[in-house]
Amino acid sequence: MNQLMKVQLACRASLLTLFACLAGCGSAPQLGGDEDSLRAAEALWTAVTSQRQPLVEQSAAEIERLHKAGTLSEDAYQALTEVVLAARASEWKDAVTDLKAILKGQRRKAS
Fold first, then answer.
1. Helices (DSSP H) in 3-73: which residue ranges?
2. Which of 5, 13, 32, 73 could disulfide-pair with 86, CB 3.0 to 4.6 Å?
3. For 51, phi and psi rounded to 5 degrees?
4. Are 87 and 48 in contact, with CB atoms under 8 Å apart?
5. pLDDT by residue (tens digit) across 54-89?
6. Confidence at 1, pLDDT banded by 50, 70, 90
7. From residue 12, how far is each of 8, 20, 33, 36 by CA, in Å?
8. Separation of alpha carbons 17 and 19, rounded Å
9. Number of neighbouring beta carbons within 10 Å of residue 105
10. Under the phi-then-psi rule, with left for phi > 0, alpha for psi from -120 to 50, and beta for the rest, what region is 108?
11. Distance (Å, rounded) from C-alpha 83 to C-alpha 62?
12. Residue 16 and residue 94: Cα distance in Å, rounded?
């Protein structure tokens, strides 16, 4: 990946972060309690904390699949995509911080 592509990805990630903050007023998008969506977010966590690009790409493909299937909301999809973009730009700390906020912000459904 050349330097220009890295800069472009970093700019996209920054813009997505800004839009997510403005749109969500700081609340984490909900993954909906769906097990597949939760597993995809956890797999992305493993990918970004281990800084393994192949795992990032696998996670990105699964997130895309879940979104297309209607399992993952638009808000959750955008937030996870932001994490993927940061990881692709090797902005690992930002990716971890953003994903941690998403995962911590999940609310459990009442039994």
1. 3-24, 35-49, 53-68
2. 13
3. 55, 50
4. yes
5. 999 999 999 999 999 999 999 999 999 999 999 999
6. low
7. 6, 12, 28, 26
8. 6
9. 15
10. beta
11. 14
12. 12
Query: CB-based contacts of 36: which residues, under 8 Å, 6+ apart?
Result: 66, 71
Place of tokens 């996870």: 80
Question: Alpha-carbon distance 31 to 77, whole Å?
Answer: 9
Q: Pick 108 or 69 by higher pLDDT.
A: 69
Query: What's the predicted TM-score (pTM) here?
Result: 0.74
Domains in the chain: boundaries: 3-104
Q: Hey, how many other C-beta atoms are within 10 angstroms of the C-beta on 92?
A: 15
What is d(CA 73, CA 6) in angstroms, rounded to the nearest whole number?
Answer: 27
- Tokens at residue 90, please? 């090797």
Structure tokens at 67: 């979104």
Q: In 3D, which of 111, 84, 105 has the Cα closest to residue 96? A: 84
3-state secondary structure (DSSP) of residue 56: helix
**Across 34-42, average pLDDT:** 92
